[in-house]
Amino acid sequence: MSEAAARGPLDGYLVVDLSSGIAGAYCTRLLADGGAAVVKVEPPEGDALRSWTASGEVPPAGRDAPLFSYLAGGKQSVVFGPDGERAAADLDELLDRAHAVVWSPGPAGGVAGDSTPASLLSAHPHLAVAAITPFGLNGPWQDRPATEFTLQAWSGGIVGLGRGAPDRAPVHVGGQVGEWLSGVYAAIGIQAALARARQTGAGQLIDLSMLEVAVLCLTYYPVTFFETLHRPWRSERSLFQPGVAAAKDGLVALGCGTAQQWFDLCAMVGHPEWIDPAKPVRIGELTAQRAPELREWVADHTVADTRDLATAFRIPNAPVSSGATVIELEQMRERGVFRRNPTDEFLQPAGPYRLSPDVLLPAQPAPRTGEHSGTWRDTAAAARPRPCGSAAGTQLPYAGLRVLDLTAFWAGPSATHILAMLGAEVIHVESTTRPDGARMIAGIPVTEDQWWEKCPIFRALNTNKKSVTVDFQTERGLELLKRLIASSDVIVENYTPRVLDQIGLDYDRVRALRPDIVMVRMPGFGLTGPMRENPAFAYVIEDAAGLTWLTGYPDDNPVEPYSLGDPNAGLHALNGLLLALEHRRRTGQGVLVEAAMVEAAISIAAAQPIEFSAFGALLQRDGNRGPLAAPQNLYRSADTDEFGRLDAWVAVAVATDEQWAALAGALGHPAWAADPELSAAAGRRARHDVIDEHLAAWCADRTRDEIVETLWGAGVPVAKVMQPHRQAELPPLQARGFFELTEHPVGPPARQSTIPMRLSDGPARFHRSPAPLLGEHNHEVLTELGVNAAEIAELEAAGIIGRAPRMR
């Protein structure tokens, strides 16, 4: 390893962590792994995560909680004070040498006194200031209390893609996933700001909204879907089938998303008579009808036998892992997905991506509280000089970067879409025989004119991109693809590993075409290991990683989130890509980024294996309750939903004793709430059932608007459980311009989500051009490669390129 590689791509960058909670901690952990010097500024009593565990277990005396030890690895800890004026002066001196700061409301941010993120940037205009808040720094809800749970409700993510059985309350996604996802987005925002600062010499404010993160990661572009097709994705809740089922020796999940998979599933379980060739295949209806028989079949088999058969029939499948079992999976053991913490003996994820050459820093110990209070000036002095570029202020951070996008569906396109919104030229490669599958998942009849151009999901994921069709299974098509590779800075692909390997385009051969290329590969389970060839649908990833395990009710099988497996993979792949670009900028070397989807998912489910290996504590799903608030639950209101059903819910989460007192006051100080045991979180958790009964009765007589007005006005975190397609009605999203109205040459105008960050230097609009028509840019891009008009005509005649599908 070279000296530059040993220090990491972000060596010399100084990041100050003024945040509290998982989001800021995970953001700065990702940056520290990339080589940045992270100085965590703590209050004298230490960060709250030092003593917090999801299981409620108490760390041994003198030891930090294991999750903190994982998240703080490789950072420095500084305590300023107790002299307030001196503390402020010391912080000011530190920030003057820093390149970026991560801020969130709470004790750590309070070290800066009354400073706001805007005032930090004003005092230190070179800084990239990332502020992580529930609704953004400005807007109608900026001061409203919220929790991870209530943000999921506001986002529409609790009902999401139909999450939960219709005869019970819907369920949130367990595991504080919004905190982790917000952390990845913040790390991307900081790296983009640092790239921008190299051009301009100026910093910027990165105003991140956790609500917008939930919208992007827990729902599937429902506003664009609704406004394009004039119907919601799904109007009622249901459990995905076959889904999670109990085998003889554990839980296993089976997926069925196509007609062929339904036929194969019928054959696998010995019921070919379920296939009726005279009727259209409606997967949801058919699997729901046969759910009892399917569960009975699974119950007679082991997990291994079920998975072996399903794999042989090419039916998506996975074990449903918990914190105890995920560390024992052969795939994880063979690839070294978990490693020992360098200080304690628990297991922690090795990381969400792998770079070759290996330029990431190895795991390092977490600091003691204030360990570096006497040495932070040495760290500050070693920081790289501040950038002093002078490029035009309208240029986006990745303008001039050419990205060859060999991805499809959601995970891969979501990564390249962010680059496209931040200025990169992204060329989305499809073929007329295999268009991007996202063009075909909205149920648009193939009898409609240009049906493949009308899917709102493709439209939502591919603005600002160019489309080129190349059938690279042909000799001439492969030659064109190689010429495209040679002209590109980055190639991103999310095929199963065998696809590019079989046509001779693994990293070594790609590097022969472009020595300094950054190649991002996004296999479901990795380029090696026994699960290498397993298909990587979102729910399969969630099942294997442990995300499914914490979602659902304790008296039933888990419920697949069926959403975040894809965007989470895209975010981590992009974070690894940006690190690789920085390494290339410094060294001229190309980089292979292996971003296995399951390892990205394991990284945000880290608390489960960490607490099991540290304490033997197996985290369990608990419906809509959670470890951060008590009471926390959904309560049915008196009004009906927009479909006329008595299925309208509110989310309530009491995260502090002060909020409990506010709740009691808002309810009129009823006698049951005066019990002194309820004044502390432990007492409320012990009496949760009793509290639920009273809150359910109180809510049942009131509308959602009345409940929200009463409780939120008193300072209690509360939310309506929104239908996802109503997201654009939320005042903070309107005020922040999160949705942008876009035109389309085939479909109607529709609003599209952007990124969950408002940037102080723009852009004014993120969507500069609509998602491309199939092969729209064939002539433009191929002409740039030196292909003349006659050759382009020949390629069209041969079907190697084209503008309409030629489905096999």
TrEMBL record:
Keyword Transferase: yes
A family per Pfam: CoA_transf_3
Keyword hit for Transmembrane: no
Coiled coil (residue ranges): none
Listed Gene3D superfamilies: Crotonobetainyl-coa:carnitine coa-transferase, domain 1 (3.40.50.10540), formyl-coa transferase, domain 3 (3.30.1540.10)
Keywords attached to this entry: Transferase
Region (Disordered): 367-388
Molecular-function GO terms, alphabetical: CoA-transferase activity
Signal sequence extent: none
Official protein name in the record: CoA transferase
UniProt source species: Trebonia kvetii
Lineage of origin: Bacteria, Bacillati, Actinomycetota, Actinomycetes, Streptosporangiales
